[in-house]
Amino acid sequence: MAAAPSPGRLRKIAYMGDPLAAPPPSELMGVLDRYRGQHDVLVTVLQQIQSVHGYLPKRSVQYAARELGVPLARLYGVATFYNQFRFTPPGRHAIQVCRGTACHVAGSSTLVAGISAALGVAQDETTPDGMFSLQTVACVGCCSLAPVMVVNHDVHGSLTAERVGEILDRYAGSAEAAPAGEGKV
Amino acid sequence: MTASERRGAAGAPQPPLQGEEAVRLAAQHYSEVLAGVPRRYLVCAGTGCVSNGSLQVLEALQVALAGTEHAGTNGRQEGWPKVVSITGCHGFCAKGPLVRVEPGGLLCSEVRPEAVPEMVRLIEAGEAPQEALTYHDPITGDAYSHEHEIPFYAHQQRITLQNCGVVDPEDIRTYFARGGYAGLTRALFQMSPDEVVGEVSASRLRGRGGAGFSTGEKWGLTRRQPGERKFIICNGDEGDPGAFMDRSIMEGDPHAVLEGMVIAGYAVGASEGYVYVRHEYPLAVNRLRRAIEEANLWGLLGPSVVGTPFSFQIHVREGAGAFVSGEETALIRSIQGERAVPFMRPPYPSEKGLWGCPTCINNVETLATVPLVIARGAEWYAGLGTQNSGGTKVFALTGAIRNTGLVEVPLGTSLRHVVERIGGGAREGRTIKAVQVGGPSGGCLPESLLDTPVDYEDLGRTGAIMGSGGMVVADNATCMVDLARYFLSFTQDESCGKCVPCRVGTRKMLVILTRITEGQARPEDLDRLEQIANVVCTASLCGLGRTAPNPILTTLRYFRDEYQAHIHDRRCPAGTCAALAGKE
Q1: How many whole angstroms from its chain centre is CA B384?
Q2: pLDDT tens, A126-146?
Q3: Can you name the residues that pair with B393 across neighbouring β-strands?
Q4: Backbone torsion region of residue B425, taken as left when φ is above 0, otherwise alpha when ψ lies between -120 and 50, otherwise beta
Q5: Is residue B272 within a helix (H) or strand (E), and if so which, with residue range?
Q6: ipTM reported for the complex, 2 dp
Q7: Which chain B residues have a beta carbon less than 8 Å from that of A97?
Q8: Taking Cα atoms as reference points, which of B14, B69, B1, B7 lies closest to residue B32?
């Protein structure tokens, strides 16, 4: 008689059921109910999912595809096309460095390199402690203040390497509420 | 109670407005009420000034004025008209936060919240504000206390921007006070749709998004298409890095955009419109949404516009970050919730656009200009520009100059006028090397070509394009090869990947340019670069690919010596390229 498979192995091969069998969480249902059956709202739906979670969790996108009646591939096709959507959780403080022309001429590439080195993360990554995530954006439209970075919707302009260090220290020091920036946009 | 307040209590217009006379009376009423306020403090709440802390200045002003007699007699903070109110971008972003005092146009620049109590005390006492808040010319050192005297403003002609920095974008009544919606009523009550199209054609207004197609002609094409259902799209996907004209208009004068869309809808026979705005512009999205609510309340949108049988609805769609979605066919895809990938033209959107219906797509600046063209007449507008193109153009002037900000000049004005007289020329100890017009689709023009008139044809002949209006000035510290590489890395990243010339060509060009800036260039690289650039220009599907090589072609044409220095001498004349640093 063959030895009974170990419980660990059993668990590994067991059929876990439909991962989407349980109804979606209520906040997601709230979004999806509004758009059920509409095929021309994929961008809007993804934007709203992202505004709930800060990113697009895999499970939510799967639910959305099922509830809206579109193939998952099509929804992912839209999600991966646009720069706005991200698939990993953002840091507590989301840093976006502007890479517009005026900022470029004012040296924003050095700023990005500096922040990246200081935090030890590359672009589109989050620090291991979940404190900061670093992104670049095409242009935030405050070219007169170049170079510019946006942290949690607060715009910081006319930056230098030292000022960036000070600003990030302030954010790091306030784990809960973001410190008052120079202005919300 | 002042006379204007008494009148206000008796005859304040009530929404919804019905008929031409009601709109005229609203304009009269609100402009009189505003004129009756002895002093109003207008705080710039454009993105630049907000980032500089203008909202804190606004709070400080409200606190400082709360106790004064002036605030008490003119309807407290909650009352109307407000003594302190926000406005859209004043334009002079370099000197923000800005506060202007009306009437008179006294301008306080670089205002910090700490300086506000003293400033208010002085102004309320009828004296000049502190010296530190007065604008001083950086070259001559002359002080200018009023906005219209400052060279930056004096050398401009603000037409499309006439309300930006004057009206409160979150208060439709201030738009009425400036004669708002008069263009719409003139169109609805005095003109047939064909006459509106004719009037716009006669004004020689051309698309301000870059391509410069005649707006009247575009409307005519859409109007002549058969079909019950047509759409108006306002293209607010201002993707060019270094450009913020549309942002400032949507944030500063949202009703002008809406009014332009309703007029366009009446002219082409559409009853629905979409404003497509980048998600990076949250303030513009919010202000447009609010303006749409107000316009609906006042009967300027909805099932019966100003009491006529004409109906018009406007929806706001937020983009999700893709440069290519500014291209009209890609924009349509994006509104339909798909990947923003362009499709072949013809059929043009005017024949088969959104959901297969005839669609008229205009840029924000174009639509914001339309109400003025209709209200003041085509002849007046055409008279402002050149023989081929009427009116004025707004530019986002940034980069290595003294005065940066939003400027508006008649078409045909020279680049030199914009850069030197309005922009104040190069910063201390620097010289202007080039002006980049038109963003990633445009070109870099050398200092020697600064006398080129700003016009679609004249700029086209130099290899640049008019573009949407970004104007970035580069000085001797900017490496032109690096600048070309910067633009190309942008277009390469943003290429949607549908057609081969753009997808592969931009990547190959970027590889070569990177090689050049890193000192790894091969002698044949320049010829190869030009060859690929020409293929990408000719064979790409949409405007993104067709114009992507422009920064390379123009820098090769005007700054070939810099390329050669990188390739043959392995040095970067401007000292920007890190790999070649220290070899100067």
Answers
A1: 19
A2: 999 889 999 888 888 788 888
A3: B409
A4: left
A5: strand B272-277
A6: 0.85
A7: none
A8: B7
